Amino acid sequence: MARREIQVKRMLQYFVEATVELIEEEGIENVSARKIGERAGYTSSTIYNYFDELSHLIYFASMRFVKEYLQELPEYLARGNTYVEKYISSWECFCKHSFEKPQIYHALYIADLGKKTDEMVNHYFSIYSSDLIGFTDEIKPMLYDPDLTSRSKALLELAQKEQDIEATTIEEVNEMCVLIWEGMITTVLNKRRDMKPEEAAEKTMRYIRNMMSPLQEGQAR
Hints:
Layout: H1 3-26, H2 33-40, H3 44-47, H4 54-63, H5 67-78, H6 83-98, H7 102-109, H8 117-127, H9 140-144, H10 148-158, H11 167-189, H12 197-220
Helix pairs in contact: 1-2, 1-4, 4-7, 5-6, 6-10, 6-12, 10-11, 11-12
């Protein structure tokens, strides 16, 4: 790696780790360019030499908070005997962790970044390549896909090998599951309902299981 690349990578890491520390101490909603610059030992304007927008730096830092989810995901997938069951299990894992850290998951999967997120994910893993260690080839494509709709649909599409499911059904069912999660996470963040993380996760999964019941009944025939 060229000296310039090493320097840039080091600077990116300085700012990301400073942002992670601030999120841990003050919450993601209280992060600012000024605070990050002070924590990293640089002026806030220096940040924009490496990140187009503050939201991009927050996105990178948020990725540091999903390790537990990514580590548990293979275990949840292994619980399913069919791809429909694996799909449901993957949502169970996602809901468990996302409602524990709703602001982090909103930053990763809902917030407007003004840039293609696949480019940002590839950039992130080029800096933190060690985050990929230990994941199977079944999991890695999901890690690289920042779009919640397409990454969840990938598992459901594999269910077509096990039963006759129309592509439009997969598209619609998957989109409705994503919309259920987005609606609930937004409700929690806006404090429209007073729900504990486990309650929000359980309620979301109940709706998702209801959406999936016709596909599960199809497998039972």
